Amino acid sequence: MKPKNNRQQKNNPKKYGKQHTKIKTSLASEKLKFIKKPLNCKTIRSQGKKLTNKDIRNYKFSSKKEDPNKAVRRSIIEKLKTGVPKKKLRKRLKKELKDPAGFKISLQIKKRWEHLRDISASSEKKNANAKQLYESVKPNLIKYSHSHDMSRVIETCLKYGDTSLRSSIFQQLKSEILTLSVSRYGRFLVKKLLTYCGQEEKLHVISQFQKSIRMLIMHSYGCELLDTVYVDHATSKQKLDMIQNLYAPHLIKLKLGSADKVEVMNLKEFVIKHSSSRDFLMTQLRDLITKIQSKALFQYSITHRLFLEYFKAANDAEVQDLAPIFKEHLQEILHTSDGSQVTNYVIANCNAKDRKVIIKAFSSFVPKILKEEFGHRVLLTLFCCVDDTILLRKCIVNQISSNLSDYISDKHAKRVVLFLINPLDTHYFSKEERLQLLNFQKNEFTKKDQMRRSKELFESINAPLLKYTTENLESFYTDKKMVFFIVSICESQIVDGKVKDFILDSIVELCSIDFFPAITDDKLEDMHIVENPFTNLLLKTLLKKSNLADKILSSLSPETLCSWLKCNRGCLLLTILSERNEEKMREVLATKRKSILKLTFPASERLKEICNGYK
Asked: In angstroms, rounded to a whole number, what is the distance separating the alpha carbons of residues 23 and 51?
């Protein structure tokens, strides 16, 4: 398209083509240089004079100031062009190229920093060096707080400085706490402020976090620092306030009552008492959890607490609606107390397809989960809720059976093994745990009977358990932790009878050894099974709950049984045997009636009553 006239062509050079002009200027006071392309811009002022639009279209005004570091920059560029072999040197040259003057100052500060970090220096000398170093960084403290290297200098000043120095640094950074909290390097400085500064400074930081908690929790750096404050520095009341500030942007402080007496409630209690606000509050909380999930901020304790509060307050439909978004991230949250409870809620309210995804995600982390204080509880929930026992055996139980001895010796993994042997054993699982696991079973996706599920899972560890008990049974008797493990095996309804018989027969064999009272209680491994406190506890439990009493009475001679009268614990075992089989024990004790009446052990009093009843 051609222009209609010359004026239109001049006003629209971009549309109708370029005009190349070279016109000399007569303005000696101005530094102008030729350009090929006319400019359309506002009037530029220079030394109080105005240039017309015509001059601006044909000339470009150069207003750049002389660079004082021009020679330094040029030499650095030449070095970089030649190709510096070492990566560290290239990095240093690039940093110097950006700000040559500032780079020199930072080098001087770092030299002083090395003197401050000297381990052999006294605390007084370190304090003096810290003050000198602080004076060097003070003019640019806020700028240095965001720097990788200089922020560490400030952290060292906090570490070795006195209270007044720490207070001075805090006062200068007080207004920048939130900015530093989301900075890549500044967040570490905030951690040091919380560690080394006083209680007032710590309260100020926590109060700033409480006001902006929704902003911080959505930032990767801010959420990490927020979690550190929540776990390590906040009191229980401050933790509750932080969680409450997350519930809604402006709505709720979950507090009722007068100013003198304040009743603090959790989310579940609040929505029960204030049902009118429930829908709004739960919607706000769900939106926040969805945003956290989209940013993959699952690994922090404060988010775990938020998730748990929601699941406790939500109804079945809300839980089932939100649970699937967690299915691929549960291995990131199950290591905390709140996180393990959230994982249990998710497992209990997911369908069979989602549970399959969860189990496969867990399969590569089973050895670690087994030995975690809270993580191992999640496996118990899986064993209670998941009907697909073939998948459980393939992904989880087979890994347990392949290294059974290691897991039995571990404090937490042993509970998982015991659950497979004797589900919900009262010796190892509290009443609250049993009720909670039973409640998780009551869902629409779990249909198989618990006993049937337990038998199918136990098949994978049956053979390894028999092998382990035959090889290590004698060592169990001197270990207090293993006493109830043997009891659980003997009381279980799903353990093979061969394992039980082997354990009971070995106990009877140990009981048949001639008894001689120990002189001291120092060496438990040298004591007889009757007198050893751990094995005595095992015998008392098994005599009451198994057929061990019948095996002992049929295998041991009366002389061997009567030799137990030489110690208090032996008298107690004979009393239990008398209650289990009175006729047989009457024959045994009748021959030693006079000796029994002369005994002074506390447990012999009951034996004396039994002997007097034989008259």
From this structure: 15
Angle at 610 between CA 607 and CA 613, to 5 degrees: 150
Q: Is the pTM of this model over 0.85?
A: no
pLDDT surpassing 60 at residue 50: no
The torsion angles phi and psi of 270, rounded to 5 degrees, stand at -65, -45
Q: What is the pLDDT of residues 193-225, one digit of tens each?
A: 999 999 999 999 999 998 899 899 999 999 999
- The letter for the amino acid at 465 is L
DSSP 166: H
DSSP string, 277-312: GHHHHHHHHHHHHHHHHHTT--S-HHHHHHHHHHHH
- Reading the block at residue 421, the tokens are 């042997």
146-175 confidence digits (pLDDT tens): 988 899 999 999 999 999 999 999 999 999
Report the alpha-carbon angle 210-213-214, nearest 5.
Answer: 145
Contact 179, 264 (CB under 8 A): no
SS3 (DSSP) at 399: helix
Q: How many angstroms separate the most distant Cα atoms in the chain?
A: 142
Count of all residues that appear for the chain in the document = 615
What the block records as the tokens of 552 is 């002992």
- Residue 64: strand, helix, or coil: coil
The residues near 501 (Cβ < 8 Å, ≥ 6 apart) are none
Q: Which helix (H) or strand (E) holds 543?
A: helix 533-545
* Pairing relationship of beta strands 255-256 and 263-264 according to DSSP bridges: antiparallel
Q: Which two tokens stand for residue 355?
A: 């549970």
End-to-end CA distance of the chain: 133
Alpha-carbon distance of 451 to 454, in angstroms, equals 5
* CA distances to 549, 589, 595 from 611, in Å: 19, 7, 11
Distance CA 48, CA 508 (A): 112
How do residues 38-47 score in pLDDT, each as one tens digit? 433 444 444 4
Tokens of 465: 């358990």
- Stretch (H or E) spanning 50: strand 49-50
Q: Decide: 466 and 498 in contact? Cβ < 8 Å.
A: yes
CA separation for the pair 263, 269 (Å, rounded): 11
**How is 328-396 classified by DSSP, letter by letter?**
TTGGGTTTSHHHHHHHHHHHHTS-HHHHHHHHHHHGGGHHHHHTSTTHHHHHHHHHHH---HHHHIIII
The tokens of 512 are what?
């048949």
Task: State how far the Cα of 217 lies from the Cα of 184, in Å rounded to an integer.
Answer: 15
Residue among 555, 595, 599, 602 nearest 577 (CA):
555
Q: Which amino acid type is present at position 576?
A: I
Cross-strand bridge partners of residue 59: 34
Which of 357-361, 469-473, 563-567 shows the lowest per-residue confidence on average (mean pLDDT)?
Answer: 469-473
